[in-house]
Amino acid sequence: MSLRVVDEVAELYGVENWGGGYFHINRAGHLSVRPVDGDKREVDVFEIVQEAVAKRRLTTPLVVRFPQILGSQLMRLCHAYEAAARSTDYKGEHFPVFPIKVNPRREVLSEFLKAGASQHIGLECGSRSELCAVLSLEQPPESLLICNGFKDEAFLRLALQGTRAGKQVVVVLEKLNELRMVIRLCRELDVKPLLGLRAKLYSRGSGKWEASGGEAAKFGLTTSEMLQCTRLLEEAGLLDSLKLLHFHIGSQITNIKRVKNAMKEAARVYSRFRQMKVPIEYLDIGGGLGVDYDGSKTTFEGSINYTIEEFANNVVYTIGAVCDEDNVPHPHLVTESGRVMSAYHSITVTSVRDEIETFADNAPAVTIDDDDPQVIIELKEVLDSISPKNYREAYHDAMESKDDLNVQFNLGLISLEDRAKGEVLFWDICDRASNFASEADLADPEFDSLSRTLAAKYLCNISLFRSAPDSWAINQLFPIMPIHRLNEHPKETATLVDITCDSDGCVKRFVDQKDVKKVLELHELNGEPYYLALFLVGAYQDVMGSYHNLFGQTAEVHVVVDPDGTSHVTKVLSGSSVEDMLSFAKFDSAQCVKSFEQMVAAQTAAGRITEEQAQSAIGDYSAMVKKPPSHE
Predict the structure, then answer these.
(1) How far is residue 476 from each of residues 64, 70, 495, measured CA to CA in Å?
(2) Contact 99, 338 (CB under 8 A)
(3) Are 496 and 278 in contact (CB under 8 A)?
């Protein structure tokens, strides 16, 4: 294998830029994962997928999870804050909290709690369901359970019962009415609560979620409302329960300068409360720490212009400096960096099922006859004369002729066969012009657009609405690349389409360090399985995926690498079956089978089909109910 080719392919896909040190290409030309930060032990992903398909009878799409990456990312985060505290003599501790809205899977939460026991890792919830989930989990004794979001009386009652159960439940108040309910419930239940206030800062983040911060933000209390809260708590004898100040300026902050401004404002609010003798001990800076999805290290919405260490340094230094200036204690820092903790740990593998042929890919060669319309003859002359010197002019001539072709067809002047012949000639000209433009290697928006139009469409066995909903909903860029044949230069360019019946089920934007690519370099299909992976899908995608077209949960394998360097699958989870999805849509699968049998029986009784045909139809229907919804 040529290592030079592997290096060139790795650079093409940008693996070292967006991979966080976890993803590489091995000597076999396969994608490999090193799930333990700083450790060379690796997992061959292609081999894992082959085993899952051949031995475990799983089908794509397939989620491959690496639980060790969860622990690695958590420790990266914690070590960054510890190092920042040491370098600035910061006295407060760091309390990492994982917001389960980012990924509520039990195995994800359990892995964080296990890996972060020494770091008093906590959890955050924002709904009744999430609260019930987190209250059932064992947390490290000093860790926090943060309750965010709008809360009704039932939510607040259960949160206070969590305090009775021995957890450090911090109820973060979003509205004055929530405080009034808390005060009443505390008296009723005789519970001493831990409370927080969510501040609505003037500062805002940057990027796609910038609007979630600032004065117009959905959540948070104004300055006057926070002061009113302190007065009400003092009147109720609960001021000493106010332990936390919370704020959030937006997810996936792209620009580190916005972080500095927000930290300074939040630190000043904290300082003023401390000077008012309000015993706040924790400053919860929320989320916002971003993931560099495209590896460009810029302020582009799919990137960030800082590292975890730079983010932590800015937070710790800025807050510490304000506190020192105002002579107040350094608060313990609570972070809710769920995206960066979970994004890297899972990839979704799909197989390319087919290539959707475009335009005249399989059209027969065109033969010009004497009685062909003049527009056909002109297109053939352009095709025969096109060259590297005149391809631009030839393309423009072809465009004019194609317009003439359509006008004449609409007027009834040419036949359907003539139109088909003209279209074949036109797309042949486009194909040659595009190739000449590519060889010229000149930036030209016109021919870039043509290249995208001519690109292949690879049909992937996946539903984007299920596996990568943010790709569809908010145009989130996820790195995509093959997991094998990476010792070969890819020679095709393509866009990706999924197997849903929705025209939005496609990927037409791809990661690039300098720009956003409109096509992805891929290998030619050769009749063998061809696997692609979507990366950094461990945050939000699991929980936000829809059941569009009744495509259900995908199968999963969980993979770890042992101390001796061997990797093995620790858990296999089957995906949804058609029966599961029928049940989701409130169909009874047994009744469905029975109804179909009755329809077939009626056809048999009427003599329209034979008994053998009837049994074949019923057998196919019954078998389909047990299969996965995706195409095998």
Answers:
(1) 20, 22, 16
(2) yes
(3) no
The reported pLDDT for the residue numbered 213 is 55
Assess whether 273 and 420 both reside in one domain: no
Cβ-based neighbours of 505, under 8 Å, separated by 6 or more: 463, 464, 465, 472, 497, 498, 499
- For the CA atoms of 375, 381, 387, 389, what is the dihedral angle to 10 degrees? -70
Q: Do strands 194-198 and 168-173 pair parallel, antiparallel, or not at all (unpaired)?
A: parallel
Rounded to 5, what percent of the chain is helix, strand, coil?
45, 15, 40
Q: Which residues of 561-596 are buried (b: 16+ CB within 10 A; e: fewer)?
A: beeeeebebeeeeebbbbbbbbeeeebebeebbeeb
Asked if residues 15 and 481 have their Cβ atoms less than 8 Å apart, the reply is yes
Do 270 and 392 lie in one domain? The reply is no
- Alpha carbon distance 3, 8 (integer Å): 9
- pLDDT-wise least confident of 22-31, 212-221, 389-398, 613-622: 212-221
Q: Which of 427, 453, 479 is the last residue of a domain?
A: 453
Cβ partners under 8 Å of residue 287, min gap 6: 99, 248, 251, 335, 336, 337, 338, 339
pLDDT at 3 over 90: no
Residue 76 φ then ψ, to 5°: -60, -45
In this structure, what token pair is assigned to residue 307?
Answer: 């590292």
Of 150, 98, 113, whose CA–CA distance to 128 is shortest? 150
**355: how many CB neighbours lie within 10 A of its CB?**
16
**Distance of alpha carbon 535 from alpha carbon 291, whole angstroms:** 12
- Asked if 268 and 409 sit in the same domain, the reply is no
What's the domain range around 441?
Answer: 374-453
Rounded CA gap, 338 and 123, in Å?
10
| Separation of alpha carbons 462 and 351, rounded Å | 8
Would you tell me how many other CB atoms lie within 10 Å of the CB of residue 106?
11
8 Å CB contact between 74 and 119: yes
SS3 per-residue string spanning 346-412: EEEEEEEEEEECCCCCCCCCCCCCCCCCHHHHHHHHHHHHCCCCCHHHHHHHHHHHHHHHHHHHHCC
pLDDT at 432: 92
* Domain assignment present for 532: no
Question: What is the total residue count of the chain?
Answer: 632
336 shares its domain with 384:
no
Cα torsion through 596, 598, 600, 605, rounded to 10: 180
Task: Report the DSSP beta bridge partners of residue 485.
Answer: none
On average, the pLDDT of the chain sits at: 93
pTM: 0.91
Categorize the per-residue pLDDT at 204 as very low, low, confident or very high, splitting at 50, 70 and 90. low
How far apart are alpha carbons 95 and 122 in whole angstroms? 7
How big is the chain by its Cα radius of gyration, in Å?
Answer: 30
The encoded tokens of residue 169 equal 């439940």
Q: Compute φ and ψ for 511, nearest 5 degrees.
A: -65, 135
Q: What is the phi-psi region of residue 595: left when phi exceeds 0, alpha when psi lies from -120 to 50, beta otherwise? A: alpha
Residues 309 and 242 placed together within one structural domain of the fold: yes
Q: Is the residue at 132 inside a domain?
A: yes
Give the pLDDT confidence score for residue 197 in this predicted structure. 97
Q: Is 332 helix (H, G, I), strand (E, B) or coil?
A: strand
- Whole-angstrom distance, CA of residue 247 vs CA of residue 190: 29
Q: Which of 73-87, 365-379, 454-468 has the highest mean pLDDT?
A: 73-87
